[in-house]
User: Fold this.
Amino acid sequence: KLVITNSQEAKFALELPNHGVDAVSKRKSVLIDDFIGVVSTRIGNISPTLKLRLRALDVNTHVKTNERTRAVVPFLRAAQQVPKHLKENFKFHMLNGNLKAAQILAETTSGSNAAKAFKNIDELFNLTFTELKEAGYKNLNKIDNYFPRKVKDLEGLQQALGKETKNIIQGAINKRKALLKVDKLPQEQIEKIINNVLRGFQRGTSAKKISSTEKRTIPKIPRQLLQFYEDPIESLDYYIRNTINNIEKRKFFGQNAVHSGKEGVNINESIGSLINKDNKLLANLDNYDINSLQELLKSRFVNGEIPMGKLFQTIRSAVYFTKLINPIAATTQFGDVTIAARAYSFRNIIGGMFNKTRKVTNSDGTEEGLMQALGLDQVLASEFVNEKVMSKWLHRGFSVSLFRAADKFGKNVYLNSALKTGQSFSNSLKGQKKLASKYKEAFGETFDILIDDLQNKRMTEEVKLYLWSELADVQPISLSEMTKKYLDNPNGRLLYTLKTFAIKQIDILRREAIGEWKKGNKLRASKNAITWATFLTAGGVSTSYLKDAMSGREPEVS
Assistant:
């Protein structure tokens, strides 16, 4: 029967989609997004500019880490050549800042090269100190003969310390927790506090002064505690990655960064400051988007950087070793070529496949491979991040089985194709419009610089960011390309083992088909859905046939 509503009922019915059905639907969508929605895509849906800033952090972190690691290779070689019977003495001198004595030991095996090696790490520490200052860490104190320390066995170290020292450490930990307004500190910060207490801080030391850059008053780690510390090679590697990560995070938040101590950023408060103060970046956002953005950034910068537990790392490494360490599994990476074929012209794909040198010229005139220029020459995916349990034998297995070589081939094809396509587009108005439709809003005032750099074939920061973004759209090469649930649950990442590439493929379809449909571009959405499905299927079928041929199996035909 026809029901005649009064004015109040009619008003309620009209508002229901906004507060009832749509709200429920939206919540279900968010739940799905948390499990399979890539964080960078979700941030980009809210703010394309912030998405690009996040990717700038990722690419800068990789590029600088790669550069600094290469710079200290002579030191790493010198440290590796120290005879076994002298290694403990070498470690003792290095971790206690007696670098001259350590250099003399190294010279017994590596000769005059040791002097250059030690000069390189001294230059590294000076450069890093300057960059920390420029990034906003104004109150740092420079330490002479500094060398970083990294705890290997936190529990064992705590057990070995005396009662008085334990009390001092616990007091410093409590002050740090109060400063950050948290119930629990990450292991990294607890290690830092222990290190600095052992360096001689007084009981009344403020939590703000617990920093690896404070001046030491007791310069030595006792020999009986050396076993609980990483060797100098591991300590230096950690220092490089950690300091660059701190610098780039500080740059990401800019003037909105809130410091916690002398070389740390209070991420939660910095996110809040960014959301509340950067009106130019986040103008016209409703409360729902602001809350979503805050949660996504927290997942990326806080939870995402917490490592898996050692047991879970071991289980995941075992899965990788049994599933991926063989040449047949490596052929899966050749499916990247079909993804590149969908995104770029076949002419550029062929050029990317058979470009033997793959060299690019940097702004300073130096030449290097494109993968190396982006800091990707040792990166498979963020899922395979260099966590301690798997860092040596598993990565060696990736190399021996040709899995890494196949992955590099696929990435090189994609990056070279992206570069050639970008350079081609930059030379015509039609092509510039295509680039603008994807990157104009995100790059903002620097978009014209990107076009000019592509036209003149310069490898600048803008071009590197463009290339990184192109690859990140299709591969999970950083934490920003993972899902919220992956980031929020360190041990739960075990459930995502060998699934992150598949989730990225789902992200492509959701972004370019469903996303375009919601924007009203139904024809483009339909075309994207058909072409992506076709090329992804073609890639899967072709690699399956190749695997069957290598295994001596008859291909399955359905």
